[in-house]
Amino acid sequence: MIRRAVPLAGLALALAACGAGPQTQQAPASAAPVALDLKTSTAAAAKGLDKVTWNLPYEPQTLDPIRSFNYAENTALANMCESLLRLTPDFTIEPGLAEKADNPTPTTWVYTIREGVTFWDGKPLTAQDVAASLKRHLDPALGTWWSDYFSTVEKVEATGPMQVTVTLKQADVLFNQAMATAAGAIVSKEYAAKKDLGSPTGGLMCTGPFEFGAWKSGDSLSIVRNDAYWDKALTAKSKEIVFRFIADETTAVNALRSGEVDGQYFYLPPAGLAQLRESTTGSVTLGKSLTFWTLLSAAKDGPYADPKVRQALSLALDRAAISKVVFQGTAAPQRTLAGAEYWGYERATFEKAYQALPQETQDLAKAKQLLTEAGSPTEPITIAIQGSAATHEQTANLIKATGEALGLKIDIKVVPVEQYGNLYSDPKAREGVDAFFSTWYGNVPDPLDIYTVFQAGGRTNFNGYPTVDADIKKARAEADPAARAALVTGIQDKVTRDVAWMPLNNLPVILYMSDRVTGAVPSFPYLYYPWAVGLGAK
Question: Cα–chain-centroid distance for residue 63?
Fold first, then answer.
């Protein structure tokens, strides 16, 4: 494969021109590969502060753990409500509120609850609280957002004063790992009965290093240090964190640069990233992540339902260009969906399998050959993009230009931002759409956590990809890490070669902190780990 380096300005012109019509007749040449220095920690704080101000990209809809499955919600919740297990900043899973997790039979998990833990109101944590919190996921009237992990659960019981037993319908290794996410977060049984749990009026009652303070709807949310916290190694340095809800990117960037706000996490690079990087009042850190940029397949018929067409477009695409231009040098080209941070076990096996996959470089000759084998389709492919999202528009323009160079007609359908989420949940919203973009992430360091999206009949198997369902079921039931890795790498090989979803780029966490503060966790586990306990003065 031949790679050609061209000035990035030329690529930017190609991106801009594509939206105006079919002027681009050649696929853009490759940009240089991206090498990123990704962190899992930042410099330790010298001391705590009375108050740190942090921005969230939007106001949380709720802080109820069973419905907190998004960035703003979990950024705040992770500092308040602890889970049975703990996902650490370096992507390992360790004991949390459960000091032990035993698996005496393939379908049984027994959790020994830690002694000496109290809720913020001083009441002791018991097995009844844990069982009640987990049972909430089984109540269809409550509507958990973590249903995939609880789909194999038959029952949850308190089998001792400090012991909870979860019985599964079938063996499932992902269930126990999910207990390190908000899926395993524990709320006081008494408090969980509140109808307004997790709201500005209802608040929370958990065991974490910060307590729920006050939530002023439309303005801010405050959390305050829990001085009675059980884990002295994670006692919060600072007394209070105040979360602002500045959704407008320009306003948020200005607030960060002026020092009005001390920090923020970004899951996509803001338009003002260059301003933040050049700021004289703060700095940007890129963190290791489980998030990736992908083109989700939704076509069940037509050209894009043909694996050879998907393979051709993927082979012709310049992922390094997307990294450099669309993501402002913050992303890395990716050849498969689950990248290196997912390799939480049998790392050598996954590394070898990854190296054996087709590289993320262009091969236009092979791409054209595949299209010929597919019958040189003339029917257009429709890609949906989110309105007012530069990353969507620019990536779509590059793919459109690439398709035109191959002889593929690609139409771009702009979906308003407030309706884009319907593509994930409503089949009717996907009618006439062959593919759409997503910043997707798994939750635990196991590639299987990503590939379960392709289970037959699953709500995220948008194009009905049929090839790996049986292997996914076997892998979820396989407790032996080596045997599971062998199954998962086989699944990965099929999914990647068929381009069931098109992997594009790995997306790091983008953390900005003012020069006043340091100590925040920059890596992906900040969504489930108490990332703010180390936050304090430089």
Answer: 18
Distance (Å, rounded) from C-alpha 396 to C-alpha 436? 9
Q: What are the φ/ψ torsions at residue 52 (nearest 5 degrees)?
A: -120, 135
CB count within 10 Å of CB 44 equals 11
Q: Taking a C-beta distance cutoff of 8 angstroms, is the pair 241, 258 a contact?
A: no
Distance, in Å, from the CA atom of 302 to the CA atom of 366, rounded to the nearest integer, reads 21
Q: Is 198 exposed, middle or buried (0-12, 13-18, 19+ CB in 10 A)?
A: buried
Token pair recorded at residue 128 = 């009844």
DSSP secondary structure, 178-242, as one string: HTTSGGGB---HHHHT-TTTTSTTT-----SSEEEEEEETTTEEEEEE-TT-S-GGG--SSSEEE
Dump pLDDT digits (tens) for 182-237. 999 999 999 999 999 999 999 999 999 999 999 999 999 999 999 999 999 999 99
Of 324, 338, 331, 290, residue with least CA distance to 503: 338
pTM summary value: 0.90
Q: For residues 123-143, b (16+ Cβ closer than 10 Å) or e, as one string? A: eebbbebbbbbbbbbeeeeee
Q: Tell me the C-alpha distance between 263 and 282, whole Å.
A: 9
Rg (CA), the chain: 23
Residue bearing tokens 């306990």: 533
**Nearest in space to 94 (alpha carbons), one of 179, 158, 163:** 179
